[in-house]
Structures are given as structure tokens and as C-alpha cells.
Write a structure and sequence with these properties.
One of its GO terms (molecular function) is protein methyltransferase activity. It is a single chain. With about 270 residues, the protein is an alpha/beta fold. It folds into 2 domains: about 5-70, no CATH class; about 80-265, Rossmann fold. The protein is about 40% helix and about 20% strand. The strands form 2 sheets. A 7-stranded mixed beta sheet has the order 5-4-3-6-7-9-8, covered by helices on one side. The protein has a two-stranded antiparallel sheet with strand order 1-2. Strand 3, helix 6 and strand 4 (about 125-130) form a beta-alpha-beta unit. The radius of gyration is 20 Å and the shape is globular. The N and C termini lie far apart (about 70 Å). Bound molecules: S-adenosylmethionine.
Amino acid sequence: MSENLKELYQIQRVLKDSGYNDTSRISKEIQDYCNKKAISPTLVLERISTGEPWDYIRGESEFYGNRFYLNRKTLIPRPETEQMVDIAISFLEGNSNHKNIVDVGTGSGCIIISLAKLVGDKKGINFVGIDIDKDTLQVAKENSLLHKVNEKISFLRGNLLKDFELKDETLIIANLPYIPEEIYKKLDRSVVNFEPRRALLGGKDGLKYYKKLISQIKKARKKDISLLIEIEPSTLKNLRRILDNYEVHIIKDYRGLNRFILVNLDT
Ligand SMILES: C[S@@+](CC[C@H](N)C(=O)[O-])C[C@H]1O[C@@H](n2cnc3c(N)ncnc32)[C@H](O)[C@@H]1O
């Protein structure tokens, strides 16, 4: 067996022991990364064994078929979130009057950047990404440069929509921290020990940020405001109570879970 293959198998063993499923692809990525950086795979494997996610070690991830830079302040984009982009695209096709898209809790910028890439310039849409964390915003800006949509998107620091001047006919997209406390405590060590708490924990009931966001939107009293959010499926019942007077569309993720909510919050 060649040295190269032996090394690949060793990497795959460590990945498997650390709970990775897609060991063939990631082992190859690790090998290529170590060759490029001229470092020993042992250094990477030691970090993997502590639960550190591979995406943080390499400083990037994939979302909607594109590369996104990351650092430890930025949540690793999740595959299910890609569906938010598809839902937003079909929403815009049927609601051409919506000329503003605001991504609240933009993180790496993966949602708003993917949308800006996909929606043609002709539609004249304003794209905004908001986050409370300044380091995260820096990563989002770098990603917008990487994808050549930096001139299309404004990135702003803010506490949800506080101090943001919401306009009529806006689609607000938000994948805010939504994990209830009890569920958060039981998450894998690779999440709890390495990913930013601020990006995941949604208070006791997982709805702390969505409650606040909905109240800000209602207070702004604007016309034609639609809200698309990603939620923890178990929080749906409580969320519906808050949205009692509105027509709520529940969209399942690819695993069949109630993951996305689309609602028109007209006043
Ligand atoms: C679950 S992450 C989502 C990141 C990215 N949109 C994605 O889908 O991968 C939530 C993001 O919300 C941001 N955030 C947390 N509290 C916030 C607040 N009060 N106002 C604005 N952003 C906030 C976090 O910094 C984090 O980047």
C-alpha cells in the first residue's frame, strides 16, 4: 500500500471515531489542505479529535454550491438553510413588488449573498445583511467580495431591526439563534465547544429573538412586510400563538420537519 493511501486511511479512521459520516470526501480535503500548507495531517487530526469542526480548521465551508469563508465567530452554514434561498426565490417570483430583502442575523452572509448572486440585476432589489457581531460582519463582507456582490449588498451592524429604517414591500429573512436552552445543553461537543453560543441559543423557549423581531416589525407599521424564518420544529406551537392573527405558511425541510415559516406581517 502506498504511503499516500496509508495516510488517507489513517485520516478516515480518526474522522470516523470523531463522528464524521462523509469520511472519504473530508479525508481527501484534509490531505490536500496539509499538502498545500506543508503541514503534517497529525496536526489537523489532533484538532479534529477534540471535536473542532473541519470547517473551522480550514476556515471555510460550502453553501448552495459556493465557498464561504468562516472564523470561530461565525456559524458554520447548515445544509437545511439552503432551502431558505429556494423559498425566497419562489416568493420573489410571485411577489415582484418586494424590492427590499433584509437578512437579519446574516452570519457568514451565506443567505443574502446566495440570493444576490441568483437574483438578476434587472429586478432592482436592495439587499441588506444585519448582524450584531462586528467580526461576523467582516467575514460576511469578505464573502461578498469573494462572490463579487459586494456592491449589491449593504452590511450593517445592528440589534435585529433596532435603528434600521424598514421600508414598505420588504422580505425579511432570518435564521436567528433558535435552539431552546434544554436542547442546546445536549448538542454535540463540536457545536457547544466550538460554535458561537450567540449564534445558536434562542433563550429558554428558543423564541427570544423571533419574538423581539416580530414585535419590531409590527411597531414599524409598514406595508407588505413578509417574514421568512428558520425555526427549531419543536417551537412551532408557541410561535403560532404569537402569530395568531396572521396566515402562517409552514414549510417542511428535506427531512420532513416543520422548519420554515413564511408569514405576511401587514399592519
Ligand atoms: C443561526 S446564526 C445564522 C447565520 C447565517 N444567517 C446562517 O444561516 O448560517 C444567527 C446569527 O444571528 C446573529 N445574531 C444574534 N443575535 C442577534 C441580534 N440581536 N441582532 C442581530 N443579529 C444577531 C449571530 O451573530 C449569528 O450570526
